[in-house]
Amino acid sequence: MNFKNNTPLPGPIPIPIFGTLHIIGINPRAWYDKNSDKAGTVWEFYIGHERNVVVNDINSAEILCKPSKRIYKRLPFPSIERMGLGHGLFFNNNYESFHKKRRLVNRALGASKFIRGLVISIQNIFKESEDIWEQLNIKDGLEFDFCEWLRCFLTDISVLQTTKQRSYTVASFAAKDDLIQSEEAKNSLKFTDAVDKFFDSLGFFAFTPLFMQDYVPGFTHYRKKCERNVHFLYGAIVNIINKRKKELDEGAELDADLLDHYLIAHTLKDQGSDKVENVASLTTEEVSVLTWDTLLAGTEATANALCFLTYFVAKNPNVLAKIHKEINEVFGSDPNVEFTLEKLDNCHYIEAVVKESLRLILVSPYTVKISDENENIAGYDFPSGTKFWVDHQGLCNNPDIWNHPENFNPDRFLSKNYGGSSDITELQRFAFSPFGCGLRGCAGKVVAPIMMKTVKDLNVRINLKDVSSFS
To answer: How many structural domains are present in the chain?
Structure first.
């Protein structure tokens, strides 16, 4: 196996078969930071025999992050693609196929009716959690795994907003085992657990060479286990789609959820109307895979981001006090007041808190780009097919770009009109890419901050029993 190339870069020394995987360890970010400190702003590592170039230089990142078909493809997942999941959004490397689906999803997510429905769904499902806590007759507060509750909470929201179907994951989550669980609640929890397992397996699929997945004992066993989990999830999603199709056939009205948008496009395809201007047409299989992508994307990443947001707020009591103050000013003192989209738009400090949290811990810490042409990056010539890893996490925490980046300081995102420092420069605006960049940036980058603002407004009602215990 030959690791030589015409553009040698700093980085760990690879070995045959494994490349540099053997030294990554269980904490890839710590391994990355160690190598970045030694290797500089452009360096390389290997997954098997495949070369990967890491870029955290702002000027080079700007070249790679511009919307361009030339540098468009993302990190391939061969095992997932051969399971039939490569023609939705996330795993799709076919430009024409991806582009038409991305336009459809952007239109659906940007619809005012969808966003307003999202805010209402968040409030209703949060109220369900509050009702459950009241049923448990808790007098001295409630201790539970907040991150796990968030995943359940966001699963219910994601399923409802994507498919118009109800899941009951929050209803199945309680501090005690004596809460009677329906079969629907149990099935919802199974689905949530399967989603967690799927995201846990992505690192394996991304960093384990295909031949090891297929032929090395242990690796092969785990791959088959992951595939069974994928088939379970896919089957559950197909059942949801078929249920909605039946409802529409029986006269139900179309709504603003994502699945209805996909089914409209599917109907156009069936009618031979795939040339309708500005409308993406979808096959039956594409509806299923696209529903898979958008349903799963709204849970894990958002839950993780909200966990870190809560952590930062809990560790900064002055920030929490300002949040309470803004909520009282915008919504009043009634805890049962309805959160409208217009009122949320006036929560400028909470928006700054969300942005600062996303700067410190990003939803998409990297964007992986694969060039279709020869590229010159940072003075180096790279051949077509080079994999570039743009390090957004490093750019958002670079002391040459941000003042005291280690500090949690929402004021940096708050204009002077609202009491902030308003010190965001154009360079910082580009460096702040918490949802990735270019054509492959997260499709939910408009929706996710709204979700985070709404949830944060709601969960400040929860009294943190011991803020100092957060670590």
So the answer is: 3
Binding residues: 442
Among residues 445, 352, 343, which one has the least CA distance to residue 120? 343
Asked if the structure places residue 37 within a domain, the reply is yes
Asked which of 268, 297, 326 is the last residue of a domain, the reply is 297
What confidence tens digit (pLDDT) does each residue in 387-398 have?
999 999 889 999
Identify whether residues 36 and 120 lie together within a single domain. Answer: no
Cβ(190)–Cβ(59) below 8 Å: no
In sign, the C-alpha dihedral spanning 120, 126, 129, 131 is: negative
Provide the CB-side half-sphere exposure for 90 (13 A, CA).
20
Average pLDDT over residues 310-328: 91
Annotated binding site for heme: 442
- Residue (of 389, 393, 440, 429) closest to 60 by Cα position: 389
Q: How many CB atoms lie within 10 A of CB 250?
A: 7
Q: How far apart, in whole angstroms, are the C-alpha atoms of residue 412 and residue 209?
A: 42
Helix axes 317-331, 300-314, angle to 10 degrees: 110
Alpha carbons 116 and 256: distance in angstroms, whole number: 10
Confirm whether 335 is domain-assigned: yes
Listed range (12-21, 100-109, 346-355, 458-467) with the worst mean pLDDT: 458-467
Range of the domain at 311: 300-364+397-431+434-469
Question: Are 416 and 388 found together in one domain?
Answer: no
Residues 111-154: tens digit of each pLDDT = 888 999 999 999 998 888 888 777 766 656 667 778 888 888 88
CA gap 357, 106 in Å, rounded: 24
Same domain, 285 and 427: no
| Distant-in-sequence, close-in-space partners of 32: CB < 8 Å, separation ≥ 6 | 54, 391
pTM of the full structure = 0.87
